[in-house]
Amino acid sequence: MHEPILQTSRLTLRHFMLDDASFVLQLLNSPTWLKYIGDRDIKTLQEAQSYLVNGPLLNYQLHGFGMCVVCLRTDGTPIGMCGLVKRDVLPELDLGYALLPEYEGQGYGTEIARGVLQYYQAKLGLKRLLAITIADNIASIRVLEKLGFQFEKTITLKDDSDELMLFAAHFNEKGTP
């Protein structure tokens, strides 16, 4: 049941399943995840499964979308996640993405984020899409700029969280930013 949602020239995007827990454990504890996204306190396979059940899998049921697994098209190796998130604290949907460190800097983030953007813009008729990142995450900012996102303002999602840069992409009637 690894039916792809979309494919790009090098990548496939599919829904998470419970058997992806070991990959989730690896990704959420990778140095770049911890540095730029934060510690989710997922330290065991059971906690990774719970993360999947209460995160992506629940979002698929509630909204029809969520974070998905990014895999190499050649052999199906999971290398990251990408998708849309509906946050109560943001007025529009939020594009999110993360890759294992060994797959960063090869254009995969831009490639899959562009695919997700085009797919969901066509499917949902998005007029505007948001993305958030911390100011230190230069690679993520570059991806967003390549995709047509523009910086709007600095925000905090919680009282105790770091300041985040809020980016937005506005889509024209052709579905392009």
TrEMBL record:
Family annotation (Pfam families): Acetyltransf_3 (PF13302)
Keyword Transferase set for record: yes
Name of the protein in its database record: GNAT family N-acetyltransferase
Annotated N-acetyltransferase domain residues: 11-173
GO molecular function list: acyltransferase activity, transferring groups other than amino-acyl groups
UniProt entry keywords in alphabetical sequence: Transferase
Gene3D superfamilies in the record: 3.40.630.30
Keyword Transferase: yes
